[in-house]
């Protein structure tokens, strides 16, 4: 299969906006793709926003974002304290905040899947599409008890070093989450292995996204 590529390198950095409801969502959903992008020669400007953190998880969110973005020349990490699990009921304030995010003028946006079973994730996805009307938006997936994995249609194959680094960073950064039965490296490897199989990745591993709208320059 031929591969679509991001635009040729230019002097201006590629502006990327990463949106995640909770402290570990961005890392789990698109951490490998971010590491992959940062391993290239292209300059990136990454704005990384976590909407609901508090206490120990806030510190973990900052540390993890800094770890994943350690190769980024230009980065901005924003952590908000919206109430975990209650996003639909705090919609007005969250929508107000999205209006501020318009100013970041991103070229590529990573957000939650529109059909995610978690209400916080769904609201962020809806507000992403509501706010950014002429942008490339990739929706990532988060494995969960509810069992909402679907059929993503855009794949990013990951080399072994990248997918192993992703999982190591996640397991190191989020000590508070390790008590959760699903939060272990096997879960993260399993999802990437399945997606790697589906896109015939050379390494066997990939991250996958829902791309609802893409323009092709023919
Ligand atoms: Zn989440």
Structural class: alpha/beta
Name the beta content range: 15-25%
Order of helices and strands: EHEHEHEHEEHHE
Hetero groups: zinc ion
Spans of at least 5 consecutive residues whose pLDDT stays below 50 are: none
Mean pLDDT: 95
CA-based gyration radius: 16 Å
Task: Report on the architecture of this protein.
- By secondary structure, this protein is an alpha/beta fold.
- 36% of the residues lie in helices and 20% in strands.
- It has 6 helices and 7 strands, in the order E-H-E-H-E-H-E-H-E-E-H-H-E.
- The chain has helices at residues 25-38, 56-68, 91-101, 119-131, 160-173, 185-198; strands spanning 14-22, 44-52, 74-79, 108-112, 136-140, 154-157, 206-210.
- It has a 7-stranded mixed β-sheet with strand order 3-2-1-4-5-7-6, with helices on both faces.
- Helix 5 runs antiparallel to helix 6 (185-198).
- 39% of the residues are buried.
- The structure holds zinc ion.
Descriptive tags:
single chain, 218 residues, alpha/beta, 7-stranded mixed beta sheet, 6 helices, 36% helix, 20% strand, globular, binds zinc ion
Task: Outline the secondary-structure elements.
Layout: E1 14-22, H1 25-38, E2 44-52, H2 56-68, E3 74-79, H3 91-101, E4 108-112, H4 119-131, E5 136-140, E6 154-157, H5 160-173, H6 185-198, E7 206-210
Parallel strand pairs: 1-2, 1-4, 2-3, 4-5
Antiparallel strand pairs: 5-7, 6-7
Helix pairs in contact: 1-5, 2-5, 3-4, 5-6
The protein binds zinc ion.
Zinc ion binds next to strand 1.
């Amino acid at each position: 299969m031929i591969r679509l590529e991001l635009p040729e390198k230019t002097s201006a950095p590629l502006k990327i906006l990463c949106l995640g409801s909770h402290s570990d969502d961005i890392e789990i959903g698109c951490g490998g793709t971010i590491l992959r992008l940062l391993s290239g020669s292209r300059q990136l400007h990454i704005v990384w926003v976590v909407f609901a953190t508090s206490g120990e998880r806030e510190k973990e969110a900052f540390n993890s974002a800094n770890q994943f973005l350690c190769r980024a020349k230009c980065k901005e990490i924003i952590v908000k304290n919206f109430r975990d699990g209650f996003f639909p009921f705090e919609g007005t304030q969250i929508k107000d905040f999205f209006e501020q995010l318009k100013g970041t003028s991103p070229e590529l946006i990573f957000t939650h899947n529109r059909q995610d079973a978690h209400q916080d994730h769904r609201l962020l996805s809806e507000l992403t599409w509501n706010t950014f009307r002429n942008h490339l938006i990739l929706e990532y997936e988060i494995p969960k008890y509810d069992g909402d994995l679907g059929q993503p249609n855009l794949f990013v194959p990951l080399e072994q070093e990248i997918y192993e680094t992703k999982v190591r960073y996640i397991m190191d950064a989020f000590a508070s989450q390790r008590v959760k039965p699903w939060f272990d490296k096997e879960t993260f490897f399993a999802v990437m292995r399945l997606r790697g199989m589906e896109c015939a990745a050379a390494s066997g591993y990939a991250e996958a996204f829902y791309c609802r709208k893409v323009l092709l320059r023919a």
